[in-house]
Design a protein that fits this description.
13 helices; alpha/beta; Aspartate Aminotransferase, domain 2; 7-stranded mixed sheet
Length: 391
């Protein structure tokens, strides 16, 4: 029986870019010790107090169908957090609770793209972006950025692709590049969106992990509140990746329709998970800083290990839990480098090519193992790179 092209074409027919990751997982299953610096998963688990709140909520009976838009008190807590952080007055009616940020990205594109519309995204990109766009029946069009501008998109690059497009998806702090978009970049994005009448889908799931500069939500910029859907998540900020809880923040009319979409797709998020999320948000910024602290520490360790050599060059690590490293001095592609490093030293990193053409000749290192293992792996990575520099 024939399946829809929408579902069979989600990966666009190409590889999903996760070959090195799958190979590393196979080696681990075979009993080989591999240092995994691949996916964006904390090396700590969800805090026991949050699990306690989750358990208490479940035992108290919050295990039935929860309100589809999200329980009002959690929507209010998310709205209050956004108001406090951005200054844009935000109410529960502007918030839909989603099963994680990924479901938010899918729903947001569903809300703004018709079948066959063009949706823009920035290359390098988080692995699911083009597939998410294709999953709603839209056409994914990349805006290619450059390592020379630390992968910050320019107005010219966006405008050159914007004709006829419906939306633009951005991510700051950025996975995979570690960039935090500057005010200048965000103003350029806002200008392009307004001139080309684009919806902006702003993925801000790393908003608590900023090491350099400040996170600015583009929803705060003049004329942007009404055309921006912000995607947020508890995954990265509270080490709650497995709980699947996040949100979309946007204009009330869009949220009303997104609630209808949720009624016909997810039917909401488990009540006890929402209660735990509300508890976690109630713990304040200190908890978020504690979850982010290991990455800030390992960022310093990264810069320390990489100093005094120029074969492995870090792009500015301004935010998120990744270091994007330029390994072009080795003459290897990111793919060959990552495969070679896995074979030689049992260290798994992501090839830049997994995240689009712009990151070719780079690798992405997730700073997600304990400090001593992390430093040892990075030192081996540098030695491996140095041994491959053409004589
Ligand atoms: N957006 C970005 C940029 C990510 O890196 C991730 C996860 O790694 C997500 C969204 C999805 O996160 P979640 O669905 O766990 O909230």
């Amino acid at each position: 029986m024939e399946l829809s092209t929408r579902i069979t074409n989600i990966t666009g027919g190409g590889s999903d870019g996760w070959g090195v990751f799958y190979r590393a997982r196979r080696m681990i299953r075979e009993g080989i010790k591999v240092t995994e610096l691949t996916i964006g998963e904390h090396d700590i688990r969800t805090h026991p107090d949050i699990l306690g709140a989750m358990h208490a909520a479940a035992v108290a009976g919050h295990t039935g169908y929860a309100e589809v838009p999200g329980i009002l008190s959690l929507r209010e807590a998310v709205a209050a957090r956004i108001t406090e952080r951005t200054g844009v007055v935000t109410k529960a009616a502007n918030i839909l609770i989603t099963p994680g940020g990924q479901a938010g990205l899918f729903a947001a594109h569903n809300a703004v793209c018709n079948q066959g519309d063009t949706a823009l995204f920035i290359d390098p990109y988080y692995a699911t972006y083009p597939g998410t766009i294709r999953a709603v029946g839209a056409e994914a069009r990349a805006i290619v950025t450059s390592p020379d501008t630390a992968f910050q998109p320019t107005y010219e690059a966006i405008a050159a692709q914007a004709t006829g497009a419906k939306s633009l998806l951005i991510n700051t702090p950025n996975n995979p590049t570690g960039a935090v978009y500057s005010t200048e970049t965000l103003n350029a994005i806002a200008r392009a969106c307004k001139e080309h009448d684009l919806w902006l889908i702003s993925d801000e799931v790393y908003d608590t992990q900023v090491w350099d500069g400040a996170h600015i939500s583009p929803r705060t910029l003049p004329g942007m509140t009404e055309r921006t859907l912000v995607v947020g998540s508890m995954s990265k900020s509270h080490a709650m990746t497995g709980s699947r809880v996040g949100w979309i923040c946007g204009p009330e009319e869009a949220i009303t329709h997104l609630i209808t979409l949720a009624t016909h797709t997810t039917y909401g998020v488990a009540g006890y998970i929402q209660d735990a999320a509300e508890f976690a948000l109630g713990q304040g910024q200190q908890v978020e800083e504690a979850v982010a602290a290991p990455f800030l520490r390992r960022r310093a360790l990264t810069l320390d290990v990489l100093k005094g050599q120029n074969v492995v060059r870090p792009l500015p690590i301004q935010g998120a839990m990744y270091a994007m490293l330029d390994i072009r001095a080795t003459g290897l592609s990111g793919e060959d480098f990552a495969n070679g490093l896995l074979d030689a030293h049992h260290i798994a990193v992501m090839p830049g090519e997994s995240f689009g053409s712009a990151a070719a000749g780079h690798i992405r290192v997730a700073m997600t193992v304990d400090d001593a293992d992390y430093v040892a792996a990075l030192q081996q990575l540098v030695a491996f790179a140095q041994s491959h520099v053409p004589k």
